[in-house]
Design the sequence.
């Protein structure tokens, strides 16, 4: 009985370790913008691209147009911390967007949870 418990414990720990490896491996590849546009509403997405336009609609609300080689998409960020002001985000900066898909006026957009600056504009 004791050997069976040890074997079960080892197998369950190996399974958990394997699931952790798989989950980190699956989340490492960002989607293209065209792939993101095909996702259903509220689906989590991660894309990379260059900022085409950046405007502040209100003190805590930003609208970006981001493009990669497959297309472009609008990105909204509602941030009380004004992250875009604190960092050197500007047009032509390479960024990674993490957020959820939403629709506004029949257009697909991303409501950003996080925007990471990958490369400053040259």
Sequence:
């Amino acid at each position: 009985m004791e050997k069976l418990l040890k074997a079960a414990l080892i197998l369950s720990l190996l399974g958990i370790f394997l699931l952790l490896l798989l989950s980190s491996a699956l989340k490492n590849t960002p989607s293209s913008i065209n792939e993101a546009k095909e996702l259903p509403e509220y689906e989590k997405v991660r894309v990379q691209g260059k900022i085409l336009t950046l405007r502040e609609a209100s003190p805590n609300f930003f609208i970006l147009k981001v493009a990669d080689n497959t297309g472009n998409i609008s990105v909204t960020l509602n941030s009380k911390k004004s992250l875009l002001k604190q960092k050197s985000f500007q047009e032509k900066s390479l960024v990674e967007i993490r957020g959820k898909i939403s629709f506004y006026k029949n257009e697909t957009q991303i409501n950003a949870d996080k925007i990471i600056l990958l490369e400053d504009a040259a």
In short: The chain has two domains: 1-29, 33-119. Strands lie at 44-58, 61-68, 71-78, 94-104, 107-119. The chain is about 30% helix and 45% strand. The longest strand covers residues 44-58.
